[in-house]
Amino acid sequence: MRKERKNEALLWFGKWTSKLGNIVFDYANSVSIVGAFSHAPWVLALYQSSETVIQILFNLIGGAKADSGSRKKILIVTDILAAAICVSLLTVTAAAAGWIPNIFAAAQPKATPWDAPVLEAAQSATQPQTPETVEFAEADYTKFTLFQSYYDGKSIALGYDLSGVMPAETVVGFTPEDALKQEILQRPDNQFWCERYGLTDDTVDQYLEAGVWTQEEYDLRLAGRSEYAKKYDLRGNSQIYMDDELRALLTDGEYKKFWEILGETGSCCVAIPMKPYVGDHILLNGADEPADRGDYTTEEGECLVLNNLPAAAQDQPSITVGLKFKSGWSYYYMELSGNSYRLYVPNPDYVTTITLENESKP
Predict the structure, then answer these.
(1) How confident is the model at residue 320 (pLDDT cuts 50, 70, 90)?
(2) Which among 30, 18, 32 is positioned nearest to 78, based on CA atoms?
(3) DSSP of 63-122
(4) Closest Cα to residue 300, out of 155, 145, 156?
(5) pTM beyond 0.90
(6) 56-105: per-residue pLDDT in tens?
């Protein structure tokens, strides 16, 4: 009797210990996944749903198998197997993700001859295991994450991701407020072309009559219009040009919706969020002085290289780099009556400062 109670106590203690371990293990995994894959939230969703999927697939089969064999042996083998799988997955994930994407290596094949040596040296520099992230709610929730950085007294390299936590979506059929609409209507597309070529309007016929285009160029321009532009016989060069732009910028569904609204109402406005980017003016130790700059876009992220730093930024024990980020909205407004307009409205500039230690100094 005493032995049975002891065994029962050991069984309960083992079950509760195992349950507590599973809870801690699951929490630690979730935290690690969020930290390692902050730019890919689907990884956490996949992890959290995997337990339910596995239970659905294996519970019935596992129960029948356990009843027909040695349960003790099955428990030992499956626990060892589970531990081996966990260690293997951890090793593979750490190796594949590197916890930090290697942006410097990805950018090197695209780099210019004077930027490539900087990136090669930067690859061997020790990098932090936890990326730095700054979020700007006032700029469409843009998020800047610094994965890699390098400063050797002569050059700077930064590997980063610049994206929206809550990315804005393109709005087809956007209704601007009165003040914004008036500002848009003050930016007609045709004005530039008319002033440049001395035309009264920018219809393709005017280009031919004024001798700006040859008959062959005129025919090609009309033949190259979209099916919608041909259907409504758009002949304004600025209209055709805007239609070509929107056809490239919008999805097929958005482009179709644009023409449905334009055909029904005679006008349509499209609001497109512009991808955030690092502005031209970069502060080095607080000074806005020029340096040779290279920008590279890779599948891993964005890379920025600065060469020929100003004298005040060279050979310092450390340096502060102030990055000014820019983003905004582009508005495209077209009327079937013959006019098209466009306006770019920037978001407020937002700045973050990074401190880099000189890798060449002990």
Answers:
(1) very high
(2) 18
(3) HHHHHHS-HHHHHHHHHHHHHHHHHHHHHHHHHHH-SS--HHHHHGGGS-TTTHHHHHHH
(4) 145
(5) no
(6) 766 666 666 666 666 667 667 777 776 676 666 555 554 444 456 788 88
